[in-house]
């Protein structure tokens, strides 16, 4: 697992260049361009389970799904930031990407530190220093586990329909 560290005001154009908005819609089309203008090595080097640490206002800018779809599709486990833009936060929930606000953990990180994340307990360990954040609601974890809000809702509807038919 690798930790990717970025600063404040990382906007959606930095996460996914706007010039591809109308030509890339599937994860396969989005992935090669994720963070292209911010960190050209990211798309080639990111691995399943990696974590992004960022400053304030992560995901500000225009409302587009590609940045979140891309981060989720390349395997980012979570984004831990000092704060998030509201629309980006909602989009992340919809796609099942975990976002955690924990300014103290972000500020404690130095290049090369290990970061361990326990979402169920609401804990982040940065270089063996423990930081807590509000535990994620079970619904948010269930949406993540289902692969996003659409899949979660479909599963709930199937379950409900199965109970009526049973």
Automatic annotation (TrEMBL):
Domain Aconitase A/isopropylmalate dehydratase small subunit swivel: residue ranges: 44-104
KW Transferase (keyword) present: no
GO annotation (BP), single: L-leucine biosynthetic process
Matches recorded under Pfam families: Aconitase_C (PF00694)
Annotated EC: 4.2.1.33
MF terms in GO: 3-isopropylmalate dehydratase activity
Pathway named in the protein's UniProt entry: Amino-acid biosynthesis; L-leucine biosynthesis; L-leucine from 3-methyl-2-oxobutanoate: step 2/4
Reaction(s) the record says it catalyses: (2R,3S)-3-isopropylmalate = (2S)-2-isopropylmalate
Entries under InterPro entries matching the protein: Aconitase/3IPM_dehydase_swvl, AconitaseA/IPMdHydase_ssu_swvl, LeuD, LeuD_type2/HacB/DmdB
Keywords linked to the UniProt accession: Amino-acid biosynthesis, Branched-chain amino acid biosynthesis, Leucine biosynthesis, Lyase
Subunit structure as annotated in this protein's UniProt entry: Heterodimer of LeuC and LeuD.
HAMAP family per record: LeuD_type2
Family classification: Belongs to the LeuD family. LeuD type 2 subfamily.
Free-text function comment from the UniProt entry: Catalyzes the isomerization between 2-isopropylmalate and 3-isopropylmalate, via the formation of 2-isopropylmaleate.
Protein name: 3-isopropylmalate dehydratase small subunit
Lineage: Bacteria, Bacteria division WOR-3
Gene designation per UniProt: leuD
